[in-house]
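Action item from last meeting closed. Structure (62 res):
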């Protein structure tokens, strides 16, 4: 009984082994991370401008 189960499992594994194919994609994978970098730059520029205005009120009259 155990031998039949082992043989069945081996035959099933060998039959399914030929069905799997791995192929590299034709085009390279592209990851775009510009959104986060742009947001950080905008926030830093806003803070720098706000500090400049507060520290030099004579340059920016209201």
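Sequence:
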């Amino acid at each position: 009984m155990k031998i039949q189960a082992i043989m069945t499992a081996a035959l099933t594994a060998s039959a399914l082994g030929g069905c799997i194919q791995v192929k590299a994609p034709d085009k390279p994978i592209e990851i775009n991370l510009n959104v986060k970098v742009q947001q950080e730059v905008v926030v830093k520029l806003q803070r720098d401008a706000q500090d400049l205005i507060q520290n030099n009120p004579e340059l920016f009259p209201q």
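Note appended to the action item: The chain has a mean pLDDT of 77.
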